[in-house]
Amino acid sequence: MAELWAAHDILFAVWNLGFRRVQFEMDNLEVAWILEGQSDALVGCSLVETIHLLLTRSWSVSICHIFRMQNMVADRVVALCRDSLSGPMVFDSVPSVLPELVRKEAVSV
């Protein structure tokens, strides 16, 4: 359920920021299938129904599954921000752990 809440929150934020063409990449295949309507898992779940309603707005959202090795940078940025109690974080510089993860992701593609 945490992945579904994350998907909801991200899609809602992206919509509110005014983006109308979005490629949403996630490393959870089952959640990607649920969001695309290709899985009957969690049918009737109000959160899934809310996400599906969000996806029917006037925008183009492409949901793509990627492997975890291709998602290391995003996962690390989320981990860095997770403990922030002050709301959204803005980095003034690239966190020191990211360049190595970018190189690892590039090799895994």
Fold and architecture overview:
This protein is mainly alpha-helical and 109 residues long. The chain has five helices and two strands; from the N terminus they run αβααβαα. The two termini are 28 Å apart. The relative contact order is 0.15.
Layout of secondary structure:
Layout: H1 2-16, E1 21-26, H2 29-36, H3 46-55, E2 60-65, H4 72-82, H5 98-108
Parallel strand pairs: 1-2
Helix pairs in contact: 1-3, 4-5
Widest sheet, order of strands: 1-2
Helix content: 40-55%
Number of helices: 5
Count of strand segments? 2
Q: In what range is the share of β-strand residues?
A: 5-15%
Structural class: mainly alpha
Number of discrete domains: 2
Radius of gyration: 15 Å
Give the biggest sheet. 2 strands, parallel
Contiguous low-pLDDT stretches (5 residues minimum) are none
Organism: Hibiscus sabdariffa (roselle)
Pfam families: RVT_3 (PF13456)
Protein name: RNase H type-1 domain-containing protein
InterPro entries: RNase_H-like, RNase_H-like_dom_plant, RNaseH_domain
Short description:
It holds the Pfam family RVT_3. The chain has 109 residues and is mostly helical.
List key phrases describing it:
RNase H type-1 domain-containing protein, 2 strands, mainly alpha, RNaseH_domain, RNase_H-like_dom_plant, RNase_H-like, 109 residues
